[in-house]
Each structure stands twice: as C-alpha cells, then as structure tokens.
C-alpha cells in the first residue's frame, strides 16, 4: 500500500511538472508569435478596438524602428526632431498635408490617403496614429507635442508649395498632389488642436472655415481633388467636430438641431451625393438627439430616435431613456437602462484588461455609468414625490420625510459632481444629464397643479416644485462656473442668464466674474454696484457718502454668505483697479468683515491689503497703526479657518518677530540720537511694543493649535530672539503645541536637545558608526551587538510611545473652506486618529550600510501595526534645509491641488519625512520602490555590453525609456516638469545621478538631497551651467516627442502657478532664508565653507574660506545681506527674469512660455552640458 501511495504521488508530481512545462512552452510560443506581428499592425488593431494606451505603445515602438528616428534620438534624445525636419521626416512638402488630414480622419480611413513617389509612408502613418491616439485619449499635452515637433515640416511644405505655384500658375503640379486643399487641412489641424485644448469657440470657427473652404475649392478649383469617398468622410468629420464644439453652448443648440436635421434630410434624398447615407444619418442623428434632450425638445427627439431603431449609440440611447421616463413607460425604461449599462460595462471590461493603465481609458465609461445612476436616482425621486402628492392622508411627518428625501437626493447629486474629475470635458455632460432628468420631473409635477388635491398636498407640491426649480437654477450656475473657468465665455454667459431666470442670487457674482475675466472691469464693478442692493437688499459703502455719519451696518435678515461674498468681490475689484484711496478701500473691507463674523477670506484680504500698504509706506507715521491692524486680522483669519493658512501664518509670525527686532534697533538709535532723547518718544515706542505683544498673546489664544503646528519650524528657528518677552511667548506657544501633539512635535524638538532624549543619542551613535577608512568595506552590522543600549531601551517595558517618523504621520490636514466653529474647535489635523497612530515597537537587528560616500545606515523599524518601515540614518550632512524645503514642497502640493490647470494634470511633488537629529546628521524616510538614476542607467548599458566609460559615453545612444506604461511615462514627465520648475526657482543644484530616483511602480521622479540650494551651485569650484537636469536619457524617456508636449505644457502650468502664488511663496521662503542665515553664520564662525555647504561632499571640498574679509564686519550682517540678495534674485525668477543672464537680459521679465522655453534650451544645450562637472554625468 505504501509503495502504491508513493507511486501515485510520484506520478502526480510528474504530471504537475509536465503541465508546468507545457504551460511555459505555450507562453513562449504565444510570445514568439506575438513578437513576429509588426508593431504597426498591432498599433492599428489596438486603436480600432479602443485600447489607446497599448496603441500608443506600438506606435512609438514602430517609430523607434525607423533609422532616421534612431539617429535623431541619438543626438537629442527626441525621436521626432524639430530642428531637422527634412532629415527626419523625408519630403516635408507632403508631411503637413498627411498629418493635417489624418489628425482629423479616423483610423479606418487612413488607408485611402495618397503618397507621392519616394515618400516613406510608414513614418507618416505612425505620426498620424500618434495624433489620432492622443486625440482619443483627450491628452491635449501629448497632441501638442506631436504637432509642435512637426511644425517646421508644415512651414517647409508651405514654402515648397508656394515655390511650385510660381512655376505652374494655371495647372496643378502632379508632384504636389494634395496642394489644392492645403489651406483647408491646415485649418483642420488647428481645429483639432483647439478642440483638444478646450477652446471650443475658436475650434468651431476653424471647422466652419474648413467646410466653407472645402465647398469653395470643390466648385472653383481645376486642380486634382481627393476622391469622393475621402471628401465625404472629411465633411462628415468636420460636421461632427463642429457639433461637438457647439453642444456645450445652450444658445447654439437650436441651430444645431436645425442644421443637423437639414443635413440628414439632404443625405437621405441625395444618397448618391453623400455616398453611404446610413453613416451620415447615424452620425448626425447622434448629435441631433443629444441637442434635443438638452433642449427638452421631445418631439424632435422622438423623430430622431425613430429613424433607426437598431442604432443605440450613447446619445440615442439616452434620448430613448428620457422619452420612456417622460411617457411613464416603466418597462421600456428599465430595458433601455439595462442595455445602456451592459454596453458601458462591456467597454469597462475591455479597459480592465490593460491593468492599472486601463483606468484612463475607462474613465469616460465610469462617468457614463455614474450618469445612469443619476438618472435612476432622479427618476425614483420623481416616483416618490408623485406617490406622496397623490396620498390624501398625507401628514406633517410625511411632508418632512419627503422634504428630507428631496434634500438627500439633491445633496447626493452635488457630491457626485464634486468627486468627479474637475474638467470641462467630464463635468459638462454630467451636469447636462442631471439637468434634463430634473427638468422632466419638475415638468411632470407642474402639470399636476391644475388637478384638484387637498390644500396641504398643494402646498407640498408647490414647495417641492420650488426646491427642484432652485436645483435647476444652481445646475445652470455650476455650468456657468465650469464654462467660465474653461474659457467658454459665450456658453458661460448663456448659463448665467438661465440661472438668473431661476432667481439664483449667486448668479450676480458669476456675471461679475465673467465680465471681469473678459476684461470688462468697469462693467463688472457697475454690475456689483447695482446688483448688490437689488438682489440682497443691503446698502453698500460708497465714496460719495464716506464723509457722512451714515451707518453702514446692514440688517440681520440680509446677513447671508452670498451677500458677504458679493461685497468682498466688489471690494477686491476696487482694490485691484485702485478705484478709491487707501482709507476708503479699508473701510470697504471693514464693512465686509463686520457684515458677518467668521468670514476667513474677508479678514485675510483686509490684513494683506494693510500689510502691502505698510510695506510701501516706509517711514510713514502710521506704520505702527498699520502693523496692529494687519496682525489683528491675520489672527482673525486663522481663527476662522485654514483656507489661507500658508499666506496668513508665515506673514503673521514674520511681522511680529521682525517688529521685535526693529523695535530693539530703533530703541538703540533713539538712545544714541540727540534729537530723540525725550521721554515721551521712548514711552510711545514702548507703549506700541506692549500693544503688539498683547495682540499676539490674544492671537495665540484665539488661533487653534494645529494652525501653529504648520509653522513649528519657523517658531523654533526664532527661539533665540533678542527680546525676552518675545522668547517667552514663543516658548509658551511651542509648549502648547507639544501638549496638543506630543508624538509629532517631539521629532521637531530633537535637534534642540543634546542629552535629554536617550533615543536621540542612540540614533546619533548609529549615524556615526563605521566612518573610518579601515571599515569602508563593511556592508551591514548587527544593531544588538554594536549599539546594544538602543535595543535594551526599546525592549524595556518603560519605553514610551515613539511615533515612527513617516511623512503621512507628520504632515497635518487642513479644514475645508467655510468650516463651522464646531469643526474648527474639534479638528484633528492628522490622517490617523490618536489611537491609530503607528508607533515604534522594534528595530530589526540587521542594519545595511549603503554604498554612498556618507555611508548612510538603512534600518528597518517595525510599527505597532505590524508593518515594516525603512528609516535611513544619514551622517555628516546638515538636514535642516532638507527638512524645511520638504515642508515647502508640501505647501506647493497644496497649491497644485487647488489650481485647475495643475489639478487636472495631477501634478505633484513626491515628499518624504526628513528629521534632523543635529547639525551633522539625521533620519530620512526611505522612499519605497525607487532606484537611483545612476544604478538604472548603469544596468541598462551593462545589458547591451557597453558599460559606462567616461570618455566614450557621448557616442552611445540613450537607453532610458518606459515603453510598457503610458500612465507611468506621463507620471514621469509630469513630476520631472514640476521639480524642474520648482528646483529652478529655489536655485536647486547638485542634481547628479544619485540625487534623482525613479519609482519603479508609478514612474514618478523623486528628488533627494536639497543641501545645494539658493543657487549655491553657481559658487562651486566647478560652477553648474544648466538650470536643471534634462539630459539625453531623461528626454528619451519622455517618448518620441521628448520634452515637447507633456513636459513643456506641465512646466508652463507650474511656472504660471508659482508666479500667481508669489506672495505666499515669498512669505514662506523668507523664514527659510533666515534659517540659512543662522546656519551660514554658525558655519563661518566654525571656519566652514562659505555658503553654508557641508565639507562631506568632494565636489565642494576645494572651496576655501574668505580670509581677506574685513574682520570688523559683523558676520550676521554680512550673512543677512547675502540672504537678502538671494531672496531678491529668487523673486526676480518668480517674476520672469532669467537671473543667470547678464546685462540687458535681466531688465524686463519674460512671459511664462518664453521663460520655460529659455530654460529648456539652456538645460539641453550641448555647450553648457559639456562644461558641467564630469561627476554630474551630463552625457547620460
């Protein structure tokens, strides 16, 4: 029996082994078969089935196989080279025509294009496919990159075309077979680009121009024309593009319905003229149906949906669903809804096969499914309301229940809008569908008003109709806001008019903002001047009655949020146009602040206005009065919320602390001066100083503690203030923060305590281990054997709770705007609740020593949640600047989320925790799944048998690329753009291949080591010549277009954001520079290197101290002057000046586009790169 069991087990093992072997062989055979399929064919198939990310992969692989593309990438890293179009693209006189045509045509029509003799058809097919795929992905950045990279080809083609016309003026040139409609196809190309950028009005004009030009050329031209099939397909796609651009504008819907209807009737009656009339009817009916249900034109919608009962596109299906909902055909409604959902789920399943990258493809499908849920919710709400209205025994409790159901449903619809991607392309159709469904329910309820029901039911009916009409009005208002922010001003104006028809008070603000954004500033102010009394019934403070004693307070019944927002908007417009003098504008702000307590933005705007006036009024007698007003309202703003915390908190502390220093200086000057020795002057200065300190003590009690936690580093940097009263207040404030959040605050206080914290001392010991030359070969060690006290301390039963220092546990979350007082008082600022914070329970015994020069120690900390966290102990490096700059990056991330252009691109900076333990070391959170740029590129070159050789690397083509993930490459290009612009503004240098990491999961670019900042790279022994790292391999990894497209557009968006937020950035930068001054002064006194650089870096090891400096010049004064100059240079960079240029280049600022273009050219300039330090590896 035992032998039988063994034989069976052995047989089973052999069977499993054979199955695994056959499976592996099968996979290899399938992979071999797929590898033999040309990339071009796979790209076309992927595009046709809707797998856009995969199509993009194969287009790029196919283009990379081209010899000319390989040569271009070898030199610049960009496969599509802008500077040598003839060399890369062949006969450029036909490139523009093919690209222009096929960027509009679908992939099914590409085979009908004609090419001249000798032209490489494959190259143009790939370019066309790239344009088509980016357009399908709604990736306007990628589309712009392809268009920009081929723009010189269009110029060359126009030149050749005009040259050919001079030789043959009356006949067509056979060698230029597409010259007869060149202008038309340039218009089509521009239309496609404009449509993808969201400029729908201009795109519609371009489509109209193309249609008119095409008809004119067809009637009058004697030149060779494209075939009838191609021309018909072009016209159909032109009309489709035109109707897509017109659909979001309610004012154009009537014209769209009539025009599409006329085209449908014409195509059916002249089928020989329009070729395949069925295609025309189906395509045009889809646009006509959508316009009809947007308008509520149910007769036209019925006619449209009945033309082809077998056609069930998304727009036609929605039309049938709305008709069934209107006619109360419950059974048909359920079937149509189920069919629409099945169609969308089928597309969702196909997208799921692409893995994580399929989310991009599936997003529109997910939004459509959500819209179907909205329709179902609104339909069920209508049924519930009907049942309640028709119930004659309706009670007061049931009325309240109905009201709660209506409010809950409408709140759910609003929430779904807020969680959707905030883009015009996504949100506008969702709002339109919600509006159409709500309009159907409201119309059905309004038709009941003529029937005889009980009075109570009629009251309920009228109140419900009124609430639904209000929801419809706010729907129009949301569409107006969305259109205005997207630049669709005509559509926005129409939506504002509709919102005003429903009596929405906030429509006044939207109308004023729309007028202001379209440069009608006087009209915007006049709109508010007249509208505020009419709409809100409250008086406004005007310059004409400022001298009277008229009470500017308004009655309580008008103290609404909307009225206060309108008054604040009017006051802001008055400030920006300098409509009134300082006193009048200040009273306007005071009116808004007194209108309703608790309005954070009003107090912030007043404080900033007064602060700016104080800055400009140097030497004014009112300086003391202005600083008290600014401090008061900054404090009030912070006590009412955290929407403007990064603008208010740094400025509040800076004003207070700098005033203390100025008061000491003024006091000494008064004592020395013979002119101001009177006692009353000294008494006056002392009185103002006491009032300021008392005001700050009130602010410290009024402002929630978590607001001060965000500025803890700034507070700690000023604890050595010259005035004891200020130091006392600072210490009390730090103690309050520590009492509220002891686990988080402890890590910030560690650098100030040398001996009191045992764990800190042990960690410092770990940092400094094995630094001598005789132990350089050691790669790991046992913590228990080497630093046994730390293991005993952690294993002790008396060991306190120590928070694991990771970024998500140290960075606070802020309140949402318009938070209530209760929410402000009980807000917990961290992601994890106090009982769920992850604390240290154990440190693994084995510690790895990393191979860099400073020999960091890689430790594994085990948390109370059972997970492992990697913490690196880095010696011989001052991490204080790294810590402060990481906080700054966190603040910039907040701005990136708020700004619309950066939010829709998902721009961000990867942040991590940095904990200084002393001036000579600290802890760094290990960024998981990352590898240094150098290790990646070294492995890639080793794999092809060409290891890195310092002398010959410029002769090796770039290899860094990520062809497997569209989303990964987008993340890489975007994070690279963000850090390039932020690093340039900060003056960040030393971006060698060890300081740039790549995330192997997401593709993000992560920068580390921020010690060489504030343009210190220019003072190195080998000065840096480029603004940021953008070498061949980094450009090559961005795809065929290189830095054109995603990188350039994201860089422009980030630079535009940084310029817009210049005030809060400078407010945060200033204390960082102050810290740098303190550190630099300490280093100079210790005979360290100038500029605050650490001696632990070989590149900076050659610097020498400035021994010739005047010994009697105060070190702090010199350092302060140097920091002020650096801060001024950074401000110039934020204003658009290239500070590294000399002479006249710095006089006037550049535009955002010009500045970014200049920086990219400098970063990729070979002459500059060849002057870089060889350890920077500019050839990679």
TrEMBL record:
Residues 1085-1116 are annotated as: Disordered. Residues 41-755 form the FAT domain. Its main location: nucleus. It comes from the Eukaryota. GO terms for molecular function: ATP binding; protein serine/threonine kinase activity. It is an enzyme of class 2 (transferase). GO terms for biological process: DNA damage checkpoint signaling; DNA repair; telomere maintenance. InterPro entries: ATR-like_M-HEAT, DDR_Repair_Kinase, FATC_dom, HEAT_ATR, Kinase-like_dom_sf, PI3/4_kinase_cat_dom, PI3/4_kinase_cat_sf, PI3/4_kinase_CS. It holds the Pfam family M-HEAT_ATR. Residues 843-1124 form the PI3K/PI4K catalytic domain. Residues 1148-1180 form the FATC domain. Its EC number is 2.7.11.1. Keywords: ATP-binding, DNA damage, DNA repair, Kinase, Nucleotide-binding, Nucleus, Serine/threonine-protein kinase, Transferase. CDD domains: PIKKc_ATR. It is found in: Nucleus. Belongs to the PI3/PI4-kinase family. ATM subfamily. This is Serine/threonine-protein kinase ATR. It comes from Schistosoma haematobium (Blood fluke).
